[in-house]
Design a protein that fits this description.
By secondary structure, the chain is α/β, with parallel strands linked by helices. It has 8 helices and 9 strands. It has a single domain, classed as 3-Layer(aba) Sandwich (Rossmann fold). Strands 2-1-3-4-9-8-7-5-6 form a 9-stranded mixed β-sheet, with helices on both faces. It starts with a strand and ends in a 5-residue tail after the last helix. The model has no long low-confidence stretch (mean pLDDT 92).
């Protein structure tokens, strides 16, 4: 029997994280909700230098630790971008059977750096917590974000950022900048790009749409993280983050909207023929 195959590209390099649990959970829930004959494989890209082939229908590429600049030219990146090049070539040659890719945080950063879509650089400080994300004009028409308000809320966790996008290059491929950081007029720093649609098949976010409220709560209430957040953002902001995790129109809505929406769009041509 024909089945749908998804590759989850693990870029965490063996580091303990909530991201991989959440991605697996979302894929399993999608399979159950739509009663699909669906399988998935987790590919350890950085630690084991594994890479997926072109037999998958969709790819979800995770966040990860460390610098998105220092790994340039590494063996694992060579494998990774060999796959990305292969998917792009396949899509250009098979316009009615395209494979879709979702890039999360670290994955989006190295993708922008590799293909010259924007500058990637270290932030002055770590961005962490439940943050407000602003849609651009194009973002307000983006199907993956339609159920979300403007602005909406998402989990942010990064030491690097995507800035100075080459908009003409993005537009030339049929893409758009979809989201940017919250506007802070009193801060003289350029706003980072938070989401890009590169074309019909490639989409990426600098925030973590896979983050669920339960996992984020467990992380925030650890003594080390609580102390860290209060020192950097203040006690009021810390308690506001905890409150946001329980509100149905914030992290919970982002979690159940973006990646499930991506999977539905990516797999729509096959979903009708691979039901359980």
């Amino acid at each position: 029997m024909s089945s749908i195959k998804i590759a989850i590209l693990d870029l965490y390099e063996g580091e303990a994280n909530e991201g991989m649990r959440c991605i697996r959970q979302l894929v399993e829930q999608f399979k159950s909700d739509h009663r699909l004959n669906l399988t998935y494989d987790v590919i350890d890209v950085r630690l084991k230098k594994e890479i997926a082939d072109l037999s998958y229908d969709a790819y979800i590429s995770s966040g990860g630790p460390g610098s998105p600049l220092e790994s340039e030219g590494s063996d694992w990146e060579s494998n990774y971008f060999g796959l990305m090049d292969g998917i792009r070539k396949h899509n250009s040659q098979n316009p009615f059977d395209k494979k879709s890719v979702f890039l999360i945080c670290h994955s989006l950063q190295i993708f922008c750096r590799k293909y010259g879509y924007a500058q990637v650089k270290k932030r002055k400080g770590t961005a962490f917590g439940v943050m407000m994300i602003n849609k651009t004009k194009d973002g307000r028409n983006e199907p993956l974000l339609k159920p979300l308000a403007d602005p909406f809320y998402a989990v942010d966790s990064r030491d690097y950022q995507i800035v100075q996008p080459r908009e003409e290059k993005i537009w030339s491929g049929g893409g758009h900048i979809i989201c940017i950081e919250k506007d802070r007029p009193h801060v003289e720093l350029e706003r980072a790009v938070m989401a890009i649609r590169f074309d019909e098949s490639f989409f990426g976010t600098q925030f973590h749409p896979e983050a669920d409220s339960d996992g984020m709560y467990r992380y925030l209430v650890t003594e080390a993280k609580k102390k860290d957040v209060i020192e950097k953002h203040g006690e009021k902001k810390y308690h506001q983050m905890l409150q946001y995790l329980n509100e149905p129109d914030k992290i919970k809505l982002t979690y159940k909207t973006i990646i499930p929406g991506f999977l539905k769009m990516a797999l729509r041509s096959k979903m009708n023929v691979v039901l359980l």
